[in-house]
Amino acid sequence: MTSPASLSPAQAAARLAEFTVVDVRAPGEYASGHVPGALNIPLDRLPEAVPALKSAAARGPLLMVCASGVRSTRACDILAAADVEAATLSGGTSAWEGEGRAVDRPAGGRTVWPMERQVRLAAGSLVLAGLLAGLRFPAARWISAGVGSGLVFSAVSNTCGMAAALSKLPFNRVPRSAADLDATLAALQG
Q1: What pLDDT score was predicted for residue 178?
Q2: Residue 18 has what DSSP assignment?
Q3: For residue 110, what pLDDT is reported?
Q4: Distances in whole angstroms, Cα of residue 5 to Cα of each of 16, 54, 61, 97
Q5: Which H or E element spans position 1?
Q6: What is the per-residue pLDDT for 21?
Q7: What is the model's pLDDT at position 47?
Q8: How far is CA 156 from the centre of its chain?
Q9: Which of 148, 126, 133, 9 is nearest to 72 (CA)?
Q10: Are the beta carbons of 9 and 99 closer than 8 angstroms?
């Protein structure tokens, strides 16, 4: 499998009207600010969106976006396995905003920490808790060992179970009306 095409924010901005932009972050992250015109299909829901994305790709190029480029690269890999070509935004919305480009923020959208930051907080807290509890209960150190092992596996496999779990938390979700995947898939089919 080849690496997906990676576009800088400047390259993507110059061609933005050509793309169907798909943001694969959790709905809460998406609602806190996204590339203008982006549709939200969370990475964990991408497999069910493949037929609609294949239809959209037949009409024009796809640009996958996330916070930093890691999840969007994974999304491109998933799509490539289904014979759907897509590019990724290098550096994600962080790089997009870092270059001073505008993002859409829906009315009532609240700022949510990027998933990578949430994972660092959760992993660090669990490691620290395991070490502190280990002072009194030595077996509690296994919590730290488990988190460390999970982080190594995450790096090797380029997946993150902790991020998948955190994306299900209420603050990473938005009301059903704003996160209606069925409406997004219908828009892609059209």
Answers
A1: 47
A2: G
A3: 65
A4: 15, 17, 11, 20
A5: none
A6: 97
A7: 93
A8: 18
A9: 9
A10: yes
Distance CA 135, CA 104 (A): 48
Q: Spell out a b/e string for 132-142, using b for 16 or more CB atoms within 10 Å of the CB, else e.
A: eebeeeeeebe
| Whole-number Cα distances in Å, 153 to 26, 32, 132, 148, 159 | 22, 29, 24, 9, 8
Cα separation, 55 vs 49, in Å, equals 10
HSE of 37, CA atoms in CB hemisphere, 13 A: 13
Q: Which residues contact 129 (CB under 8 A, 6 or more apart)?
A: 140, 143
- What does the alpha-carbon distance between residue 41 and residue 85 come to, in Å, rounded to a whole number? 16
Cβ 95 vs Cβ 9: under 8 Å: yes
- The phi and psi torsions of 37 (rounded to 5 degrees) equal 85, 0
> Do 165 and 122 contact (CB within 8 A), yes or no?
no
Exposure of 56 in the CB half-sphere (CA atoms within 13 A): 24
Successive 10-residue mean pLDDT values, the chain, 190 residues:
82 95 90 92 92 94 94 94 95 93 78 80 93 93 92 84 83 61 79
